[in-house]
């Protein structure tokens, strides 16, 4: 009988009533939802939702029932005739974040309404933070008691103010400090300050979970809410019995000793630490009871938790300002889970959780099952050619064996330079342009493998099939390439880097390449005949939601700094001039977002990190489903190819060639000091498919300008005719020849 009921339920769901297409779009826009957000919630593609709103297609079960449920709830909130906010139009290369005005990301907690539901995202994910304080407050140890901010006690559990989510009323995180009177204060986003009554670290964890009301809603329906984050200042560390700084031995170990008194306190209170122990980013938890998680993340800036390369001087900020900075990052990206690299990887999993709840069985129970589109909960072995040196798959190789390109996949970013021609030496300037969020743009729309590889001998190349291909591309001649359908261009191939190697050298035989690299050889007009391949038939656009989230975070923060999408070229260059000085804290957020992109991609092929590892043995990262060197290779391949495609378009149209390329930066000899002096704009419009000035990922900004005499001088000074000038174009400082490692 239950099977009959299920069949009836499915039949009803297949005919769930839907409003007309125009009404669907109105309801979505009225609630401020983007196509990407709806698509992520329903686990479909953005184009699918767009087709539903245009009336071109109709949703089918099981998405139809969920889509109808969403529209029904929105219809109650926004009856017909309600005003609809305008929706910005994105530029063709990559969509821009909606720029509709919204409340501040750091408004007081009592004024926030946290979203609920399976697709809820953190409140105010792309909003304008308040202006920074004009005067920095003194450190806690020297601040007079009379200047302590007005604080309030956390409300008892079970109570809430109208319109707020009781779980996360006070935001995703708090910076815990101690004032001159010895009072412990928790600085939350929006200027909210809470009195903390906890006398010990275990009590602080209990207070956070019981009264703190900190955390963040999940980013995906099957996912988990973010655990609350406590940032402990030096004064708070001292108050709770932790060292203010780590000794040299503790820094090398990445943790305090297991016998530390605070760890003993946690153990007595039945709290546990992860295998990484109590370090700069510590996780304190109790085993989950059903769906209830009891976990608090700690961040200790004085233990170097906030890497100065990405967070600048954030660790030295006063508590309220640090709460604002980290709160903005948490709202737009996610609550930090560790370094920016760790957070970048965790964001992938948060947007595509490995499992989901199944449909009810005959007894009405749900079970955990694989979440389609995710990497799953179990790691998969890479192909031998994708394995880095020391991997267990290579344990049988001789100890000092150097693998050739025909044995190992090497997809890395560009590091190429050449001598200047006589004509280029007569030009006065070298101008560098840099691709915004280049690796994020490389991930956008990229089809990557989700499961294990399948070995194929003598395959027919398929550009839609992600994988690694052994193929000879030495016959590709850059002096004659296809630049459009049935349109060929004659170029000076000696002045171009090869698109197939990181050093720009022409390959001399078979080598392993990721799918985007081989597809580009076909795009240039040449046939390819693979010898062997490891392909992944289970594949999908796994990184799309990750890209969208980080793109929106980047564009929203740049807009707060006065740099908007769709600016005319001259206005964009003017807006970029000194944008970091307008709000140094938000500029740090921009740097952290960029580091999240690069670090997240890098973590896909994390190498051993000490711990007594020996070549041929597995290391800890291999146990993660997100240890996927093939995905990293595909993103880097796509990023390098994107750069080369623009270089070729530019050369075919203008006859200008780069003198150096480093990752996402290209340097050209120019008659003027500005990118507008050599980029071929006509009536404000760029060369189609070439370099375009703008803030969006994939577009370019000015990196720096030096004199041609400077470039020739430093090469002569260091006796390095191939010195990569792109590495030093920003400020012209060359202290020594850099290997680029």
The Rg value, from CA coordinates, equals: 27 Å
Stretches with pLDDT under 50, minimum 5 residues: 83-150, 154-164
Mean pLDDT across every amino acid position: 86
Q: Give the strand tally.
A: 23
* Number of helices, where a helix is a run of at least 4 consecutive DSSP H or I residues: 21
| Relative helix content | 25-40%
Largest sheet: 8 strands, mixed
Structural class: alpha+beta
Strand line-up across the major sheet:
1-4-3-2-5-8-7-6
Question: Which term fits the overall shape?
Answer: globular
Strand content: 5-15%
Distance between the termini: 66 Å
Multimeric state:
single chain
Report on the architecture of this protein.
The model is unreliable at 83-150 and 154-164 (pLDDT under 50). The chain is α+β, with helices and mostly antiparallel strands and 741 residues long. The chain is globular and about 75 Å long. 30% of the residues lie in helices and 14% in strands. The longest helix has 26 residues, at 629-654. It has 21 helices and 23 strands. Strands 1-4-3-2-5-8-7-6 form an 8-stranded mixed beta sheet.
Write the layout of secondary structure elements.
Blueprint: H1 2-13, H2 21-30, H3 35-42, H4 46-54, H5 63-77, E1 152-153, E2 173-178, E3 184-188, E4 193-196, H6 201-212, E5 229-232, H7 234-239, H8 248-253, H9 261-268, E6 272-273, E7 281-289, E8 292-299, H10 308-311, H11 319-332, H12 340-351, E9 355-357, E10 368-370, E11 415-417, H13 422-425, E12 429-435, H14 438-443, E13 448-449, E14 454-457, E15 467-472, E16 480-484, E17 487-490, E18 510-514, H15 515-523, E19 532-535, E20 539-540, H16 544-560, H17 569-576, H18 579-582, H19 584-603, H20 629-654, E21 660-662, E22 665-670, E23 700-707, H21 708-717
Parallel strand pairs: 1-4, 2-5, 5-8
Antiparallel strand pairs: 2-3, 3-4, 6-7, 7-8, 9-10, 11-21, 12-22, 12-23, 13-20, 14-19, 15-18, 15-19, 16-17, 21-22
